[in-house]
Design goal:
single chain; 6 helices; mainly alpha; flat
Length: about 150
């Protein structure tokens, strides 16, 4: 009987973890629709800094208060995850800005894209890809698959 109750507890914990993951994904999708308007209103750095500090404050508050009510604790953490989701999404904009700035200062973006396009076209030509064909041969499809699989095995 003891083993059965531990197994039930394990499955219940897995169920809760799945629900939590789904909730985090949905909250990220929810906040994604507001990132652009928040950023335009307050600025990237300001809104991102506020979100990071706000999420940290909520997590510290949840720890310090030692909330006993699971519903209140869950709501507090959901708000923290939504705020942290905003920061995570806006962080990708920071990275993109840094990359764009690097390319503008170095002038390497156009050259790099041209080389990448040439290499992709050369590889497709080598395996027998026919541009504009309605359907490619099975050998071409297999070669593309094998090329992709060989790049994934690193």
């Amino acid at each position: 009987m003891e083993c059965q109750s531990l197994l039930t507890l394990f499955y219940f914990a897995q169920f809760l973890a799945t629900i939590a993951t789904a909730g985090m994904t949905l909250s990220a999708l929810l906040i994604a629709s507001f990132v652009s308007s928040i950023t335009k209103k307050f600025g990237k750095k300001e809104a991102g800094s506020f979100a990071l500090i706000g999420a940290g404050f909520i997590y510290v508050l949840a720890f310090v208060l030692s909330i006993q009510n699971p519903l209140v604790f869950a709501i507090l953490l959901i708000v923290a995850v939504i705020v942290m989701g905003y920061y995570t999404i806006s962080m990708y904009a920071y990275v993109t800005d840094v990359i764009d700035d690097f390319y503008i200062k170095r002038g390497t973006s156009k050259v790099g894209h041209a080389i990448a396009g040439f290499l992709a076209g050369a590889l497709l030509t080598q395996i027998g890809h026919v541009s504009g064909a309605e359907q490619q041969t099975a050998e071409v499809a297999n070669s593309i698959y094998l090329q992709k699989a060989s790049n994934l095995s690193y």
